[in-house]
Specification:
Blueprint lengths: L9 H17 L8 E12 L18 H11 L4 E8 L3 H10 L3 E5 L11 E8 L4 E8 L25 E7 L2 E9 L10 H15 L9 E6 L8 H7 L3 E2 L2 H4 L15 E6 L11 E7 L14 H7 L6 E6 L2
Parallel strand pairs: 1-2, 7-8
Antiparallel strand pairs: 1-12, 2-4, 3-4, 5-6, 6-7, 8-10, 9-10, 11-12
Helix pairs in contact: 1-2, 2-3, 4-5
Length: 322
């Protein structure tokens, strides 16, 4: 970890030691030229921060230097991570990148200006010792003819509230495209269906094109799917997207407030023989529950901790690449 904050107090150092040990026991180690660790994390309102080791009740934002060190400690366990809810103010993101060190880089979108976009960006952070950009970066735009479909068919009538962001990377000799998204939550589940169907159809068309930039396509992010097996889940997966069983298990929790929620996903396509349309071999997957460790010596409520770390747990998948 690059030192950008001088002399962290003892309570921070002790907590980071516990966090590092917990991460060692729960996240697979990086193995040079052998594996690839891809992750996604909705980091709640990831914008500004208060440059104090311990924020006070009157401080806004609540996120402080201790919080950023914990976030960076988690992120560095992965090779590339998609982050949702990055705000216009990227002070916390810049500090995180400095803590990660010179071997880390990022690529991100501009701010979504419309109200439904909530002033958010999509971002990827990646370890350049293990992953590099391979040429493609684009936002997904819905074809005009899709917007003219009958409303009764649950078709999307406008562009995505927060445009999905696709970027290609390379690790060893494997090139892959990650598509990150943050589906509109809306007032009820029915408001999410058009976006879920549209993104699934878009990805299916792209993945099925033999002349596409590359076939190793993985979608990841906050799908805002409420429960395992609910209508949103079925709607999204009906185009052939596959979520590994490890991420369908109840132990792979997404929300710090409700273990039944199924918001975040990592998924890819399989053919009609259920063979993954990936040249990378899937190994394992899971989520990381930071709740018992991160900031645990601060005696914080879950709500306060959600604004300092996040209300979502990071989700990860491991692949064999060489």
């Amino acid at each position: 970890m690059t030192k950008i904050y001088n002399d962290p107090p003892s309570f921070v150092l002790k907590n980071l030691q516990l966090l590092e040990a917990d991460l060692d026991s729960k996240i697979p180690p990086k193995k040079l030229d052998r594996n690839l660790l891809i992750a996604t994390w909705n980091i709640r309102a990831f914008g500004n921060l208060t440059r104090k080791w311990r924020s006070d009740e009157e401080d806004s934002p609540k996120r402080d230097l201790h919080s950023i060190l914990c976030i960076a400690a988690i992120i560095k366990r992965f090779d590339v991570i998609a982050i949702q809810e990055v705000r216009a103010n990227i002070r916390a993101l810049r500090d995180t990148l400095k803590i990660l060190g010179d071997n880390w880089s990022l690529i991100l979108t501009d701010v979504t200006r419309e109200d439904k976009g909530n002033g958010e960006r999509m971002a990827y952070l990646f370890d350049t010792r293990r992953v590099n950009l391979s040429g493609l970066a684009c936002e997904l735009v819905v074809p005009q003819e899709w917007l003219k479909q009958d409303i009764s068919s649950n078709a999307l009538q406008t562009q995505f509230a927060r445009t999905p962001y696709a970027v290609s990377f390379k690790s060893c000799d494997k090139t892959f495209i990650l598509v990150t998204l943050h589906i509109l939550y809306g007032k009820n589940s029915s408001e999410r269906i058009p976006e879920l169907k549209a993104i699934a159809k878009w990805l299916a068309d792209w993945a099925g094109d033999t002349n596409a930039y590359h076939q190793n396509m993985i979608t990841l992010g906050d799908f805002n799917i409420n429960a395992r097996g609910d209508l949103l889940d079925k709607t999204f997966l009906e185009e052939g997207l596959y979520v590994p069983q490890q991420l369908q298990h109840p132990s792979a929790t997404r929300s710090i407030f409700d273990q039944t929620k199924y918001y975040d996903q990592i998924a890819w396509f399989r053919d009609n023989k259920e063979t993954p349309n990936l040249s990378m071999e899937f190994q394992n997957a899971g989520s990381y529950n930071f709740l018992p460790i991160a900031l645990q010596n601060r005696d914080l409520s879950k709500l306060t901790l959600s604004y300092m770390i996040s209300d979502h747990y990071p989700l990860w998948a491991e692949f064999k690449v060489c």
